């Protein structure tokens, strides 16, 4: 993307709304909750200016429902929340997964569990983003580290959601959400926008809303009110959209939902490697924590320590390959997260015993500092 | 005193407009062509007690966005001074309001009648934050005078531009009188 | 099935899943006839439901249909309607779906006066899960979770709707179908949030648990216990016990939500 | 509507034998055969269509398929 | 603080977190005085809230106190009351907590007529999250999420409570404190579900966003716009616009939930 | 436990209620949902007979709230649900975790996601049981395979929940919940019941509800209405129960919550090994699936195949040690689950590359059959 | 024909009481001192269409609780017969009602007027399930006669004991008439 | 209650200077000093205690600590 806007100071939550509008969001339903509230407030002000709709619903469950309804009716739709609200949205997120309704759900993480620490940062919802709703389901989760990245990633969240017809979670944290940072926004014309795939109705005799016409696992989508009546249900359904309890229908549907994601890992997964070519120790991180890691790695490299960083931009589907493709020099992986140890289990499964996997965890309401990363790396390298 | 990375902590209590002051400093730095981030800390949910804004300015990428060893601290309350006085960069300075009781610290303290100036000279205690911005800018030159003026005009409510400009200048003057 | 109505149904999905004598089919038929009578544009109709026997209705109807999560039909419907105010949005829901788990969405949709018509299939029971009491089960009635008789008082749904802000509120029964069709027609024509509570019968669970006999017996009860709003006004309180008051309770012209939102858009765009 | 066009059709496959049409036809047009409704008294029919709109299974059509239903 | 009242407070937690002039402190004080006036057994009182500025009140009160999740106070309270009917259960909640996310629990608690007293701190805004509109925000008012003016109609909470089945329903304000204390006393003495909606003031958000001026100005507004239930009955409809009707709206004797449940237990044990 | 009752035919859901009542449950709040509904129905009938309370709440969120309230008021309390309701309960489950209110939550799993397959079995909520609510939190999850085990495990769920002051999830599946099976119930007098630890108030000057008086991480509990007023909040709190945003308070609280579980793995974790002494391949399984595995293993052993089974009775905390302590003969682990592959990731993390970890997954609404297990084991052994 | 494990599948449509029949057979097996499990399959949510109950009886532990290759199938509808007729244990038998159309199957089919007997001889079509239990018991001896009688008395609604006993005997008789 | 026992106490630490007591005392007993309420006219006080019950910060006690509040 080419930079054209003047540099300006922008808050992470604001960048999220701007990115969403740039991506084509024209519907927002939400319920305020710290530290995501600014997203609702800015959406309320900005959306009607571009002809879009904002509604504050009675709770998070309703917000998620309204977002799905609006998306089915043809508008790109988003909601934003934080931990307690994210828990409440889970049932309807599962509905969107199964019915393949594109939508973006922002979770600006705060300290948990329960009401927890509303104004303090944490990264404690990272496993919930994957497993929060019941049953097997596909999901995409992205996690930005910079305000500018919030803008870009919100667009990407919409693009992936529209393309794969799957809810996309933008997993921010309080630090990134509330941070104001210098950003230069790209020329709107340069932004790549993906819209949901539409069927060529002239070529289709009868539109089956869940038929994999193109063999890519993604059924083309007609919006409600476009003259093609069809049925959408949260029950397991066949290609016609109607419920079925046949084992083969269930198996096919669940497999297809998973395949949409699993067949496209290369496109969906994004990460940043930093000094990993020859690193003995690699720090895996995401969100605001990654910024501390970068600083620490810069400092340690100046000291000559062989340390690198793997910053996960896509968290789910998990970038197993990125872990497995770390160079043979790498012996240790430190997983730095603002939680009691969540992603570390998944990294552990990836590592398959090849790496020594160590956690750097902080769960006291404060961002992990570069010093803490440095200390941990030194400790690990000493022990090695 | 401009280094690669300058950290500023503005501290006091809710309602003193410290977050706006932080935003103005950060925005001014951007207008100067630098990089800047601003963050803040909140009380429980969104209200009450102590308030704190932090700004990091740099010519480089800003990785870690939080303030650890600030070069500059502004403390408008005793509580704020006591909480933060012992943790600055080696050459750091602490700016305190005249209403604040000086305290032991290895760092340089500059005491100025910021709140009083706002209330009595400008006539609106509300603009103490802008007086403080003037003081910081004059004292540390972290941002240029024009940039900070433009940043203020951009961020303050319409109709209060002149008032705020006056407050800024008053801040400069306080520093000038020092030397 | 009458030929002229076939286009409204998904004929291939019939016969429906409902038990013999279940009132839900009667209400579904009444909705279709009301739509047909008004000659509404079929393609612009969107029918939304939650989960329950009643909420299965949209599956049989040949419109844009959405079978959501339990209790949430009105939340989804609100999203659809606000996104596409030109669509006619109809919610078909059960007493459990609407007043138990969905109660909050119901009162808030009433409050906003968003232009949605809600038809509540009230059979006084959770039919789909085999007969637990609902917030509409009468005091003293039996249900699988009220083996000693129900001590939960029931809502007066029409009162609740009106107090919450609905601007058209009426009640019908599956016995009084001609009136029911008329009421639904009026609700569909009303600008704003309209509620039609319809007393249905669930012979399989409510009927059996309470020894009410055959569907015919249950229909007779509806016939014999119903009185009109007008008659009710004159009736002494004591006699009202166990009576079902049917007819129109409330009608009001008030600003409709999506229209008000269009004004917001104008204001926002004008301000720039 | 001409007389000869007129009929009361019951779709046997759809009918679930609930008995509602039988019980509530004001003119007792139907009788019950093993719970199945049978038209026994077509001449009495006033075409009120109550049976049609009360049938939970859309199994009855009164007055011919193309009859205007209004 | 008056010595005789100190035992009701957690003195070490004061001064409280609320902003200067916030009405929530006035309501909290009124609740304490009502309890004191009635000489209720302190140890048998349990105070439950959700989340919000208002819901912080229990933290300052020296009873069994429970600060639950947002909107769910009445659900938790129902569990406590049914488990221990001898406890006096009081719910302190905000307009957002009670009528937005908590709306369903509210109408169902009303319906069951469970012996809980609910005091709603209605400041017409979500205070804690810095000023979004609530279901009680008046039409046209400004809020951070209603930058062009609010188009959501508000509930009449007292009407809603009554229509849902509450058996004591009254409204007070933080200006009319002597009456408020009396109302709360009556609510506490009432057997069944009692609701006291109290108009509070939020100078920080609702006041500022709507340019209503100081806490004193907002108190004056409450004073000048309030009329009694009796006066309201005689007033022509046009004049009622923007008026706050205060006093008792409804009182009824009806079977209370936990007492009815005790009868179930007797019946079940008798049957064996 | 000594067997004394006559053998009788009992349904899994019924055994759950009977176990709960035997454990001392005197409060049930719920909202019906297939396939858990019988639990509510039987509780409604049984509880008043023993002087307990049953209430049908307006939804699952309210049910969970009422259960926590009742438990705080001193009654042992339970709720039961299935997938969609389990999703809705998550926010309040997190509240119970943080406030340390004992309670039992039964999830009789059905096909998911969303409304899914209400009447068909699945094991798709196993990760949700661990990660369904936001933020770091402790949780215990048990999973029974037999009707008699449902009875015993419900008692154990109450015991563990009371002892550790943590919500305990009883993760059933439709097969076990609806199965009727011959059971002989133990003599009530022989059943070991654990009640929440109570403080000796005569020895405590001022009762701090969250003080670790005994150094075991478990604060003794006073019930509401016992004359000791205290405060309970879902915010992070110090030992007095009042909110705090101090980093050290947050860190201490979260660590203590986790420590309660992590220090007592040996007591909490329970599993059954079957023919694992010399097994080359071990099938890991739980719930109803394990019954197919046992049959398959019996058949394969007759053929002389070196195959064993590890049946997880405690799922969370995960029995890593049980995996790691498999004998040196073991090369392959097959994880058999009625889902798309959930626990397999956790087994993978345990395995650390030592074992070849293979999934046997079925997600079509049918129980995995012994034949399928046999085929998979043969395939794995052939490849090995 | 009693083997280590006997699997029975009772199939028909909702409302025919097949689940109760399954429960009675399982309970009778337990009274006989055996092990037994009973399961069923449901339509969408809890209603409609086909209904099916399954019973496994064994002297041993019952691991896998579902029926795969039943020794005995009862089919009260055409649909049920066609669905299940091709999947039995080698020596399995299929019992069908007279109203059911015989179909091609490698297994032995026994056709008896179960529903008619209930309706016409006992006077209540509702007890066809108990007639069927009688038929199965008489034909296969999977459970003892006393056990099944006791199981019935335990599970049927009060006041209907005699009726159900009559139905059971009628089932036995149907089989006796066969031989 | 004897005269000498009587006082109007304002807890300065608790007071957040909202001005409510000053504005609504029917007898204008308070005046404002930098927003701080000061008792300037104690003799006019009727002990109606409106100031006490309206103070959001529990900062006022009228009539002496041990005075019966009823
Ligand atoms: C979240 C959730 N909770 C519970 C259920 C189970 N459930 C399905 S339908 C229903 C009740 C339906 O009652 P009602 O709306 O009155 O419809 P009816 O079947 O009586 O027509 C329940 C409790 C569910 N599907 N989802
Ligand atoms: C599930 C959930 N959603 C949202 C929030 C954020 N939140 C906290 S308090 C509140 C509104 C409070 O409003 P009200 O009850 O009116 O209390 P007030 O602060 O105005 O007294 C909101 C939206 C939350 N804590 N939990
Ligand atoms: S169970 Fe009741 S509501 Fe459901 S289809 Fe049958 S009769 Fe109708
Ligand atoms: S009303 Fe319909 S379903 Fe019922 S008996 Fe008559 S035709 Fe059959
Ligand atoms: S149309 Fe009327 S009169 Fe004719 S059969 Fe039907 S109900 Fe009877
Ligand atoms: S924000 Fe409003 S409601 Fe909250 S404490 Fe301040 S004045 Fe009171
Ligand atoms: S009312 Fe209370 S807080 Fe307000 S000024 Fe008076 S004493 Fe101070
Ligand atoms: S008691 Fe009454 S008169 Fe006396 S100071 Fe207070 S408000 Fe004024
Ligand atoms: Mg119902
Ligand atoms: Mg409020």
From TrEMBL, chains A, F:
<feature type="domain" description="Pyruvate flavodoxin/ferredoxin oxidoreductase pyrimidine binding">
    <location>
        <begin position="18"/>
        <end position="246"/>
    </location>
</feature>
<dbReference type="Pfam" id="PF17147">
    <property type="entry name" value="PFOR_II"/>
</dbReference>
<feature type="domain" description="Pyruvate:ferredoxin oxidoreductase core">
    <location>
        <begin position="280"/>
        <end position="373"/>
    </location>
</feature>
<dbReference type="InterPro" id="IPR050722">
    <property type="entry name" value="Pyruvate:ferred/Flavod_OxRd"/>
</dbReference>
<dbReference type="InterPro" id="IPR002880">
    <property type="entry name" value="Pyrv_Fd/Flavodoxin_OxRdtase_N"/>
</dbReference>
<dbReference type="InterPro" id="IPR009014">
    <property type="entry name" value="Transketo_C/PFOR_II"/>
</dbReference>
<dbReference type="GO" id="GO:0016491">
    <property type="term" value="F:oxidoreductase activity"/>
</dbReference>
<keyword id="KW-0560">Oxidoreductase</keyword>
<dbReference type="GO" id="GO:0006979">
    <property type="term" value="P:response to oxidative stress"/>
</dbReference>
<dbReference type="InterPro" id="IPR033412">
    <property type="entry name" value="PFOR_II"/>
</dbReference>
<dbReference type="InterPro" id="IPR029061">
    <property type="entry name" value="THDP-binding"/>
</dbReference>
<protein>
    <submittedName>
        <fullName>2-oxoglutarate ferredoxin oxidoreductase subunit alpha</fullName>
    </submittedName>
</protein>
From TrEMBL, chains B, G:
<dbReference type="InterPro" id="IPR052554">
    <property type="entry name" value="2-oxoglutarate_synth_KorC"/>
</dbReference>
<dbReference type="InterPro" id="IPR019752">
    <property type="entry name" value="Pyrv/ketoisovalerate_OxRed_cat"/>
</dbReference>
<dbReference type="InterPro" id="IPR002869">
    <property type="entry name" value="Pyrv_flavodox_OxRed_cen"/>
</dbReference>
<dbReference type="Pfam" id="PF01558">
    <property type="entry name" value="POR"/>
</dbReference>
<dbReference type="InterPro" id="IPR011894">
    <property type="entry name" value="PorC_KorC"/>
</dbReference>
<feature type="domain" description="Pyruvate/ketoisovalerate oxidoreductase catalytic">
    <location>
        <begin position="14"/>
        <end position="173"/>
    </location>
</feature>
<protein>
    <submittedName>
        <fullName>2-oxoglutarate ferredoxin oxidoreductase, gamma subunit</fullName>
    </submittedName>
</protein>
<dbReference type="GO" id="GO:0016625">
    <property type="term" value="F:oxidoreductase activity, acting on the aldehyde or oxo group of donors, iron-sulfur protein as acceptor"/>
</dbReference>
<keyword id="KW-0560">Oxidoreductase</keyword>
UniProtKB/TrEMBL annotation, chains C, E:
<dbReference type="InterPro" id="IPR011766">
    <property type="entry name" value="TPP_enzyme_TPP-bd"/>
</dbReference>
<dbReference type="Pfam" id="PF02775">
    <property type="entry name" value="TPP_enzyme_C"/>
</dbReference>
<dbReference type="InterPro" id="IPR051457">
    <property type="entry name" value="2-oxoacid:Fd_oxidoreductase"/>
</dbReference>
<dbReference type="GO" id="GO:0016625">
    <property type="term" value="F:oxidoreductase activity, acting on the aldehyde or oxo group of donors, iron-sulfur protein as acceptor"/>
</dbReference>
<protein>
    <submittedName>
        <fullName>2-oxoglutarate ferredoxin oxidoreductase, beta subunit</fullName>
    </submittedName>
</protein>
<keyword id="KW-0560">Oxidoreductase</keyword>
<dbReference type="InterPro" id="IPR029061">
    <property type="entry name" value="THDP-binding"/>
</dbReference>
<dbReference type="GO" id="GO:0045333">
    <property type="term" value="P:cellular respiration"/>
</dbReference>
<dbReference type="GO" id="GO:0030976">
    <property type="term" value="F:thiamine pyrophosphate binding"/>
</dbReference>
<feature type="domain" description="Thiamine pyrophosphate enzyme TPP-binding">
    <location>
        <begin position="51"/>
        <end position="197"/>
    </location>
</feature>
Automatic annotation (TrEMBL), chains D, H:
<dbReference type="GO" id="GO:0051539">
    <property type="term" value="F:4 iron, 4 sulfur cluster binding"/>
</dbReference>
<protein>
    <submittedName>
        <fullName>2-oxoglutarate ferredoxin oxidoreductase subunit delta</fullName>
    </submittedName>
</protein>
<keyword id="KW-0479">Metal-binding</keyword>
<keyword id="KW-0408">Iron</keyword>
<feature type="domain" description="4Fe-4S ferredoxin-type">
    <location>
        <begin position="6"/>
        <end position="35"/>
    </location>
</feature>
<keyword id="KW-0411">Iron-sulfur</keyword>
<keyword id="KW-0004">4Fe-4S</keyword>
<feature type="domain" description="4Fe-4S ferredoxin-type">
    <location>
        <begin position="36"/>
        <end position="65"/>
    </location>
</feature>
<dbReference type="InterPro" id="IPR017896">
    <property type="entry name" value="4Fe4S_Fe-S-bd"/>
</dbReference>
<dbReference type="GO" id="GO:0046872">
    <property type="term" value="F:metal ion binding"/>
</dbReference>
<dbReference type="InterPro" id="IPR017900">
    <property type="entry name" value="4Fe4S_Fe_S_CS"/>
</dbReference>
<dbReference type="InterPro" id="IPR050572">
    <property type="entry name" value="Fe-S_Ferredoxin"/>
</dbReference>
């Amino acid at each position: 993307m080419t930079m054209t806007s003047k540099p300006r100071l922008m808050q992470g939550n604001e960048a999220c709304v701007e990115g969403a509008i740039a991506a084509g969001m024209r519907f927002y339903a939400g319920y305020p909750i710290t530290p995501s509230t600014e997203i609702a407030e800015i959406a309320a002000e900005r959306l009607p200016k571009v002809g879009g709709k904002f509604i504050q619903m009675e709770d998070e469950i309703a917000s998620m429902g309204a977002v799905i309804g609006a998306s089915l009716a043809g508008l790109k739709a988003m909601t934003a929340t934080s931990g307690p609200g994210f828990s409440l949205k889970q049932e309807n997120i599962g509905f969107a997964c199964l019915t393949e309704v594109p939508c973006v759900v922002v979770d600006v993480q705060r300290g948990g569990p329960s009401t927890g620490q509303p104004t303090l940062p944490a990264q404690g919802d990272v496993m919930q983003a994957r497993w929060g709703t019941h049953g097997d389901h596909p999901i995409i989760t992205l996690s930005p580290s910079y305000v500018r990245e919030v803008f870009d990633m919100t667009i990407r969240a919409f693009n992936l959601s529209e393309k794969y017809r799957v809810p996309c979670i933008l997993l921010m944290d309080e630090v990134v959400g509330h941070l104001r940072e210098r950003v230069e926004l790209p020329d709107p014309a340069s932004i790549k926008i993906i819209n949901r795939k539409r069927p060529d109705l002239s070529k289709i005799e009868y539109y089956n809303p869940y038929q994999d016409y193109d063999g890519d696992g993604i059924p083309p989508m007609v919006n409600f009110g476009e003259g093609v009546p069809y049925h959408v249900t949260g029950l397991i359904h066949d290609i016609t959209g109607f419920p079925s309890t046949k084992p083969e229908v269930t198996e096919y549907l669940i497999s297809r939902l998973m395949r949409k994601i699993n067949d496209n890992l290369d496109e969906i997964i994004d990460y940043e490697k930093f000094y990993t070519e020859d690193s003995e120790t690699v720090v895996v991180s995401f969100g605001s924590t990654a910024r501390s890691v970068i600083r620490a790695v810069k400092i340690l490299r100046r000291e000559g320590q062989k340390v690198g960083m793997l910053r996960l931009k896509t968290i789910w589907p998990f970038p197993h390959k990125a872990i497995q493709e770390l160079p043979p020099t790498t012996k240790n992986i430190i997983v730095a997260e603002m939680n009691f140890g969540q992603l570390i289990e998944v990294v552990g499964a990836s590592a398959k015993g090849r790496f020594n996997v160590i956690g750097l965890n902080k769960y006291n309401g404060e961002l992990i500092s570069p010093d803490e990363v440095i200390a941990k790396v030194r400790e690990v390298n000493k022990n090695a | 005193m401009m280094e690669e990375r300058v950290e500023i902590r503005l501290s006091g209590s809710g309602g003193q407009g410290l977050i706006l002051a932080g935003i103005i400093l950060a925005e001014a730095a951007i207008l100067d062509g630098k990089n800047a981030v601003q963050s803040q800390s909140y009380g429980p949910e969104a209200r009450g007690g102590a308030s704190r804004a932090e700004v990091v300015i740099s010519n480089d990428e800003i990785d870690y966005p939080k303030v650890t060893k600030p070069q500059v601290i502004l403390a408008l309350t005793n509580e704020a001074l006591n909480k933060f006085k012992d943790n600055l960069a080696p050459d750091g300075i602490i700016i305190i309001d005249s209403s604040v009781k000086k305290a032991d610290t290895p760092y340089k303290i500059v005491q100025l009648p910021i709140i009083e100036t706002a209330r009595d000279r400008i006539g609106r205690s509300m603009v103490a934050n802008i007086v403080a911005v003037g003081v910081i800018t004059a004292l540390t030159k972290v941002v240029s005078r024009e940039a900070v003026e433009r940043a203020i005009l951009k961020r303050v409510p319409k109709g209060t531009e002149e008032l705020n400009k006056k407050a800024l200048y008053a801040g400069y003057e306080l520093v000038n009188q020092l030397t | 099935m009458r030929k002229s109505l076939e286009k409204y149904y998904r004929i291939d999905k019939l016969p429906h899943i409902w038990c013999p004598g279940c009132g839900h089919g009667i209400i579904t038929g009444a909705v279709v006839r009301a739509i047909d009578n008004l000659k509404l544009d079929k393609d612009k109709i969107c029918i939304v439901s939650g989960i329950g026997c009643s909420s299965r209705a949209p599956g049989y109807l040949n419109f844009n249909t959405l079978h959501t999560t339990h209790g949430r039909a009105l939340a989804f419907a609100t999203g659809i309607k606000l996104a596409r105010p030109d669509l006619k949005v109809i919610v078909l829901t059960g007493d459990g779906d609407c007043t138990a788990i969905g109660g909050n969405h119901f009162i808030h949709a009433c409050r906003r006066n968003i232009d949605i018509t809600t038809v509540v299939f009230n059979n006084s029971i959770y039919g789909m899960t085999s007969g637990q009491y609902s917030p509409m089960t009468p005091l003293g009635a039996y249900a699988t979770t009220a083996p000693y008789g129900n001590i939960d008082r029931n809502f007066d749904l029409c009162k609740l709707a009106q107090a919450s802000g609905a601007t058209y509120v009426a009640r019908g029964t599956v016995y009084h179908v001609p009136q029911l069709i008329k009421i639904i027609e009026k609700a569909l024509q009303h600008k704003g949030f309209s509620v039609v509570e319809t007393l249905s019968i669930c012979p399989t669970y409510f009927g059996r648990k309470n020894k009410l006999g055959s569907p015919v017996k249950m229909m007779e009860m509806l016939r014999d216990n119903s009185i009109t709003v007008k008659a009710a006004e004159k009736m002494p309180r004591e006699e009202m016990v166990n009576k079902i008051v049917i007819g129109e309770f409330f009608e009001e012209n008030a600003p409709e939500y999506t229209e008000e939102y269009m004004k917001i858009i104008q204001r926002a765009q004008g301000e720039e | 509507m001409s007389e000869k066009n007129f009929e009361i059709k019951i779709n046997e496959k759809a009918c679930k034998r609930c008995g509602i049409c039988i019980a509530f036809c004001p003119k007792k047009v139907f009788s019950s055969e093993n719970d199945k409704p049978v038209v026994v008294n077509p001449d009495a029919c006033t075409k009120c269509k109550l049976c049609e709109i009360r049938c939970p299974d859309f199994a009855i059509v009164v007055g011919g398929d193309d009859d205007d239903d209004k």
